[in-house]
Amino acid sequence: MKGLKGLALILALALVALSLLSRFVQTRSAPSSDAASNPGLTTPVVAKSDAASSAQTDLPVKQEMREQFTLQPNVMVYVSGINGKLDVETSATDKAEVYLVRSVRHADDFEERNVSVKIDNDGDLGITIRNNHDRNIWSAFGSRKDERHRLLLKLPRNVQFKASRMNGNLTLGELDNSLIIHGLSGNVKAARVATSAELEGINGNLDVTFANLTKGVYTNGVNGNLDLRFADTVNADVELRGHNGKFNSELPNTTIKEQKHSRVEARIGNGGVSIEGNGINGNFNLLAAAKAASK
Question: Most buried of 110, 145, 149, 292 (most Cβ within 10 A)?
Answer without folding.
Answer: 110
